Fold:
Amino acid sequence: MRSYYLKIVIIAALLGMACTTKVSEWVLINADPDKYALVYYHNGTIPTPVKQQHSELENMTKTANLLFRTVLQENIEKPYYGLYYQNRLISEYADYNALSTVAFSGFEEAFSYNSEKGKVICFKINDRQFLEFIEDKNAKDTDRLVSLVFDCDNPARMEVYLRSKNIPIVRETETDAAGNEVLVIQGTEFYSIKFTRYLPEGLHNKTAGKFLGENRIAHRLHHAGLHVSDVAKANRLYREVLGFSEMWRFREENDATPITSTCAFPIVWKTSNTW
Structure:
């Protein structure tokens, strides 16, 4: 594994697609440290080889917000591992070798390029969805999410629309270092929001059909979960301006300020002639 920390840059996606339920370090890395736990259940003395494996495991997951501990449970036939989220069992693993999906996502590194923020390393989920990271040795002490990127067939027309809604434009539509057309606005939090169109000569399109390993923990990104300081403010941007539709909320009462709001991606982005 790389010795430096990485900053998340991009999630380019059409949301609402199917995803496997396997969990990896890619999920754990930005989670609250007291919410994920990996437990090794054993029925006696832990053999030395297993202790060595646990030492390796702790090294592999040291940048993940994952607590590891061992628990003596005399009534079990064979030792096993359990992965928990807020005391809820997510997965069980028969042995150390089965833990590979906890530490590794299976996503393959497709390409890299230099940006104004540093070297960007791109991992591929599928031909339309990517995860990109910026090399940054100090990332642990900074905001790790850099930007959220949406797939858009016409960023220039999107720019005209957003200006009509008085949304501040951080960077006008241009071709970025990866060779794609991109528009940048400021989100409601510290991270930016980008709208990108993959151009034929861009690095993303050049990987079509490649770097799609069988060991990927998921073939599609189902959704993006964002922490926001003000749900009502975020709703104005995502729902009123960008056209997302609310699927579910908590609190559920219509007159209550929601703590959580789950929204669906606006298909109109791909069909409307008004933007």
